[in-house]
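Possible regression after last week's pipeline update?

I re-ran a chain I had predicted before the update to compare outputs. Posting the input and the new output here so someone can diff against the archived version. Not blocking, just want to make sure nothing changed silently.
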Amino acid sequence: MTIDMRSDTVTQPTPAMRRAMADADVGDDVLDGDPSVGRLERRVAEMLGKERALFCPTGTMANQCAIGVLARHGTEILLDAESHIIHLEQAATAALHGVQIRPIETPSGVMDAIALERAIRVPDRDHPRGTLVIIENTNNGAGGRITPIDELRRIRDVAASRGLPLHLDGARLWNASIATGTSLADFSACADTVMVSFSKGLGAPVGAALAGPASVIEEAWIHRRRMGGGMRQSGIIAAGALYGLECHLSRLGEDHAHAAELADLLGDAGGARVVPPDTNIVMIHLPEGRSAATVARAARERGVKVGVWAPTRIRMVTHLDVTRADVRRAAEVVREVLES
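New output (post-update):
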C-alpha cells in the first residue's frame, strides 16, 4: 500500500464523516441560506471570536475575498516572501484586484514585526501605498513554522500604527493552536480577518471560511459570488467540515508527534538537512547535486509519495491517514533513497 505524505490535503473522508455528509440538512444557500452552512459559519465565528464567518469552497477564494475587501486597487500588500498567496494562488491579487505584492524576506522565512516595520514604505507620492498586511500562520513554505502569539501581537501593533488592516491566512491555524496551547480566539484577535481551512488537518474533502466583522463579511459575500462561490445545497460539504471540527481537531497533536519522529528518523541521511518541525510539515533540503524530482520518483517507486517543494527540497506532511507505522516505513524508504 502506498503511503501518501505529499500533503495533508490527500486525506480521505472517514466513514463517519461520509455518513454525516450524506445525512446533512440542506437548503439553497444563495436563496434562503443552507442550515448546515449556517451552523458551520456560526461555529467558526464563535471559535475565532469574530462577528461573522463566510463558508467558501477553498482557502484561496477566502483569502482573495479578504484582499478584495481590505486592500485598495493600485496599492500594495505586504506579506511573507514564502507565503501561499504569492506562490500558490495564480497571481490572483494582481489578476482580480489590481494589487501589487511586497514580499518580506527574513532569515527564518517568517515575517516578524521588525521586518514588517522596515518594509513599510515612508509615505511619498512617488511610492506605492500599502493598504494591507497578511501573515500566514502556520507558514507552509517555512515548514509549518508557527508565529507565536506575542510576535503576532507585535506585528498587529506595527500594522495598526500605520493604519493597515491585518489578514491572517490561518489555513493551518488549528495546528498552531494545538501546538502552542494558544486559543484560536487569541490568535484571531490579532487580525481584522482570518481564513481557516477544513480540507487539511481536519480531513474534510473541501472548504474554508473567512471570519471577521459583520460589515466586512457582508462585502466578502459579494466577492465570493463574483468569483463563482455562490453555492446551493452546500450543507453536504459543510457537514464534513463540521464533523472535522467536532472529531478531528483534538487529534492534531498526533500529527505533530509523528512529524517530530519522522524528522528524528531521517536525521542527516545522505547529507540532507531536515528542518525541525513546529507542527505537521517536514521540509528536507537536499545536498548539492541531488534533485528533488529524482528523490521523489525513487521514493514513489518504493511506495512512499513525497512532495517536491523546490528543485532541491522535498516536503513530507503527516495527517489523519498516516499512522506511526507509516511514518517509520516512510522514513526508512526516504533514508534509503537519500543514502543510495
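Follow-up from reviewer: compared with the archived run. Residues 71 and 131 are 5 Å apart (CA to CA). Marking as no regression found.
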